Fold this protein.
Amino acid sequence: MTPHNNAKLGDYAETVLLPGDPLRAKWVAETFFENPRQVNSVRNCLGYTGTFNGKPVSVQATGMGQPSLSIYVNELIDTYGVKNLIRIGTCGGLNKRAKVRDVILAMSASNEGTMYHELFGKFTFAPTADFSLLRKAADLADQKDMTWHAGGIVSSDSFYQPLGLAAYKPLTDHDILAVEMEAAALYTIAAQKGCKALAICTISDCLITGDEIDADQRQTSLTDMAKLSLELAASL
């Protein structure tokens, strides 16, 4: 056990889905897992383990932002032996070719934060997804006729940007697809520890057009993303 997790050793599968929202973790487990059981309840950052298509899989909420995610990812890897980490969440669209409800497979994640600046010194580290996970996710999305985009995203520490869309112009000028708040830390930790990671996000709103999906569309889109992520997890 850790200060943030009361699961026992062996409670997590080697592959874990990582939503930010604890209630989304609960929804994934209760909706899709065969024989789900709750393994973590500390701070209500809920974790569950079950099976999907007969394969062991877990889901663990990480909270919002890179510092919170980093706590759970470090502990999942170091204490519980997790090998594959798949972030599932929503993102804001920053590119005209990516529409609301589209799925983003994050090849790379630029970073607004300073968490790892001291670690890399004069270098600018480029956090990237594991290619084998990315390729499998793309193949599965094609099989499902899902509209998806693979490319760069940015992990921001500020949900409410004072400058709005203008804050992201240097990135949108370089074809960044979307903004969220966790993937860069996930990719950095996975690279450091020799694990596999991928962020799969659904565009819930577009910062360019102002379009956003309503509650019913959001649930449908999240269901599609969850099924994609779980089939990916079961294929490992």
